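User: tokens in, sequence out, please.
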């Protein structure tokens, strides 16, 4: 695997929501509206993909594929419905919760 540096940002608006990029502070590949929903990204860390083949919540293959195809990866961790603001709002409105895949689909 070609070594790639990965820059990780967290959302200041959304709990447990992270953005992975190959270029620091380059948000030009994000779809319209995603940055508004995400909020101003807060830089968290940088790591080498080759040196860290095991990642929390995603595989390195998923990350590389997303970076190659879209230029970014958005990770939304839904540890519990109560802590996910979107699903909490849906619950209050009497709607069923969304899965991680459904939420990820909003940003593709």
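Assistant: Sequence out:
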């Amino acid at each position: 695997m070609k070594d790639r540096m990965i820059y990780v940002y967290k959302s200041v608006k959304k709990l447990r929501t992270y953005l992975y990029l190959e270029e620091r502070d380059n948000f030009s590949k994000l779809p319209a509206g995603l940055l508004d929903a995400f909020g101003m990204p807060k830089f968290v860390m940088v790591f080498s993909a080759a040196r860290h083949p095991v990642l929390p919540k995603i595989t390195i293959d998923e990350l590389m594929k997303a970076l190659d195809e879209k230029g970014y990866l958005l990770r939304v961790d839904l540890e519990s419905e109560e802590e996910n603001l979107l699903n909490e709002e849906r619950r209050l409105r009497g709607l069923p919760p969304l899965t991680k895949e459904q939420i990820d689909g909003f940003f593709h």
